[in-house]
Design brief:
The chain is an all-alpha fold. About 75% of the residues lie in helices and about 0% in strands. Helix 1 (about 10-20) crosses helix 3 and helix 2 (about 30-40) packs across helix 3. It starts with 8 loop residues before the first helix and ends with a helix.
């Protein structure tokens, strides 16, 4: 299932910035998120995830940053590709080794 991208990166950044700027005006972070999410038209959980991601990317919270996540995905794709190539090479090696044995036996 793919996530829809209903909100542009600019809207996301602005919403996160609003939460950070107005956090002190509310009794809790969640209250700020609920208020601001209603103003931009998203559910509070979504805005909460954006805030968490922003905090991780800025180093204010523990976790894997967006850049690191992209690098991990790229490395996982590369590993998958290399494993597939290795499997093909193993099969080709076995095929040619068997062909060489068959050729020697016929000689």
């Amino acid at each position: 299932m793919r996530k829809s991208t209903k909100f542009s990166p600019e809207v996301r950044e602005r919403a996160v910035r609003m939460v950070q700027e107005h956090r002190g005006e509310y009794p809790s972070l969640w209250a700020a998120i609920e208020s601001i999410s209603a103003k931009i038209g998203c559910v509070p959980q979504t805005l909460n995830e954006w805030v968490k991601k922003s905090e991780i990317d800025s180093g204010a919270r523990e976790g894997v940053t967006s850049d690191e996540r992209e690098r991990i995905k790229a490395l996982e794709r590369e590993v998958k590709e290399l494993r597939r190539a290795n499997e093909i090479l193993k099969l080709a090696s076995a095929f040619f080794a068997q062909a060489e044995l068959d050729r020697k036996l016929k000689s």
